[in-house]
Amino acid sequence: MPKLMGNPCSLGRRFLQQGARVIVADIQRPPQRLLDDGAVFLELDVTDRDQVINGFANAEAAVGKLHVIIHNAGKPGKGKHLTESDEEVLGKRGIRCNAVAPGPVRTPMLPPGHVLNSLARNLSALGRIAEVDDLVGVYHFLASDQSKYITSQTVVVDGGRLAGFRTEVLSRLAG
Questions:
Q1: Rounded to two decimals, what is the model's pTM?
Q2: Are strands 68-71 and 96-102 parallel, antiparallel or unpaired?
Q3: Interior CA angle at 98 toward 39 and 104, to 5°?
Q4: 3-174 has which fold?
Q5: What is the pLDDT of residue 43?
Q6: How far is CA 131 from the centre of its chain?
Q7: In terms of DSSP bridges, do strands 21-26 and 96-102 run parallel, antiparallel, or are they unpaired?
Q8: Residues 89, 139, 79, CA angle at the centre, nearest 5°?
Q9: How far apart are CA 145 and CA 138, in angstroms?
Q10: pLDDT under 70 in the chain at which residues?
Q11: Any idea what DSSP says for residue 30?
Q12: What pLDDT score does 174 carry?
């Protein structure tokens, strides 16, 4: 069965349901129900290179050879060296490492009235904030054999926000 390392939370449940072994590597402990479902918690700060390197050894000691790493750091650039280290460390071990860079995502940590909800509606091409389910397909693709030659990449999933402002927003700004 595939083995994953990262902080997937609800994404992790889906991988667990498909028979994967999941390691949640983060500075925050995941919800207990994820651990009850079979995930293993590994306390780790992805901004600390030594912790990341030791984390791989600890993860493999816990579940065996890693097949997939989900790099899901909460802020842009945090843990960037994890993806960039692929060539020198991970690739030689047959491990592909890619990152997903989401725009604003509705999660339990984001209150309904938070400014990101409004910004996402007004600034993304799709006119809404992302749901966690909007990201799941990207993670699954990157974890599958369909992407077996993709590594050291960052996939932006932001509803078209980086493509520029929506026409209606530009019209309002132009006045």
A1: 0.69
A2: parallel
A3: 80
A4: Rossmann fold (3.40.50)
A5: 92
A6: 13
A7: unpaired
A8: 45
A9: 13
A10: 1-10, 71-88, 164-170, 172-175
A11: P
A12: 66
Distance CA 12, CA 97 (A): 17
Alpha helices in 18-114 (DSSP H): 32-36, 49-63, 80-84
3-state helix, strand, coil in the chain (%, to 5): 45, 20, 40
Q: Provide the terminal-to-terminal Cα distance of the chain, rounded to the nearest Å.
A: 57
Q: What b/e string do you get for 21-41 counting C-beta neighbours within 10 Å, with b at 16 or more?
A: bbbbbbeeebeeebeeeebbb
pLDDT at 5: 46
Spell out the alpha helix ranges (H) of 44-126. 49-63, 80-84, 115-123
Residues in the chain: 175
Domain chopping of the chain, boundaries: 3-174
- Residue keyed to tokens 């999660």: 107
pLDDT at 87: 61
Do residues 130 and 104 lie in contact, with contact meaning Cβ atoms separated by under 8 Å? yes
Tokens 């899901």 correspond to what residue? 72
Which DSSP symbol is given to 26? Answer: E
Q: Between the CA of residue 59 and those of 3, 25, 109, 167, what are the distances in Å?
A: 9, 9, 27, 47
